[in-house]
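Posted in: Structural Biology > Protein-Ligand Complexes

Title: Requesting predicted complex, adenosine-5'-diphosphate in pocket

I'd be grateful if someone could produce the 3D structure tokens for the following input. Sequence and ligand are given below.
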Amino acid sequence: MPEPERHKFAWMDFVWLAFLGGLALLHPIVEIQKQLTLLAIGVFQILEQRFIRWAGPRGRVYSVIIKILLASLLVGHTGGINSSYYLIYFLPVVSAAMFFGPWATLFWTTVTSGAYISFLLWVPWSAFELSTEGATELAIRNLFFFLAALLVNRFVVDSRRQSLRHQKLAEELEETNRQLQRAEAEARRSERLGALGRMSAGLAHEIRNPLGIIKGSAESLSKRLQASDAIAVELAGYISSEVNRLNSIVSRFLDFARPHELEKHPAEITPLVERALTAARERWPESKVEVERQYDAGLAPVPVDSGLCEQVFLNLVMNAYEAMDAQGGKLRVSIRAANFRGREGVEVEIEDSGSGIPENLREQVFNPFFTTKQSGVGLGLSIVSKIVDVHGGRLGVESPPGKGACFRIFLPAEESQGKARD
Ligand code: ADP
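-- Reply #1 --
Done. Output follows.
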């Protein structure tokens, strides 16, 4: 349990010094060693926390030992075994009870008690006799040391346990809060993409028809002008190729916008991921990317649309390869059984060692047409997000500072969640 920081002279320190000053004024007032010992006790008590920090892991043990020594000095200077100042031994006893567990408390109380009883060794036995009352008194004093130690220790252990419980509870609460915020962000993303999908589906259809007409016209224009005007033919060619490019963008956009008719069948996820990895390898045969596979054995099939899921993994693997560039890197792919919010399923993790995604872009990357690549379209992740959504799954991304991006896809095993939407 961390100790509170003590840098400044607190008001408790004044009270403490006043209490010791009071002791200093009591009989025997002229005994200079007594006064010096009291001063040393006061100063040590005030500087104790600093001393413990400075002394390192055994600081508390040293602190208790020093207190036993100082208390013995005081008792020694004020009459030994008969000293009325024997109560000063409560200082090391209570400190030990506060610092340690029950067994160490008992040990240090025994040491303290031994230090006190050891004054019997110094009495001049020729002129001293330990009467029954004296022995009883000594026993009572020592037993009270133990009683106080155990009482304080029990209280401290209880309060330590309580504070641990509160700390654990606070941590759990914080984690739940984080999960809730993540779930909210994911829900907002699904809504946003759903609305965008509906709006853009209409728009894409409207664009496609005139594009078809422009393309047809450009082709017949180029046929007619074939012999007569080379420049016009070239221009018609540009129109045609640009229309093709636009068409492919519109098709990909429709992929994102179109309501997915799911054809779900129980399928093993591992071969789908492997197919995506093979496709990426074929696309970048020279790549120095090293793939590390961590696949759980014997995973149960989950009901998915295999074609769409393969597209999910392909988009993510392609992005990871692109993030790591030609310099290569490590692509870690893990597939395991998982339980997400009480639902059983399979979780796929695709983690690259690229430059990662800055925190402020982590939600934006799922927006259609968001891209940081020169030749990117920015539809890959929005399509991935939508496909995972319609499977009733969950898509998350993490990108700790200084590390690459890690995409996590959970696909549930239960049938009921996977209804097509939009
Ligand atoms: P595109 O690949 O066409 O850019 P995506 O929707 O697939 O479209 O990705 C959107 C953006 O997300 C990318 O341009 C890139 O900035 C970021 N991104 C996606 N995957 C990764 C990754 N693995 N590492 C770093 N950035 C990524």
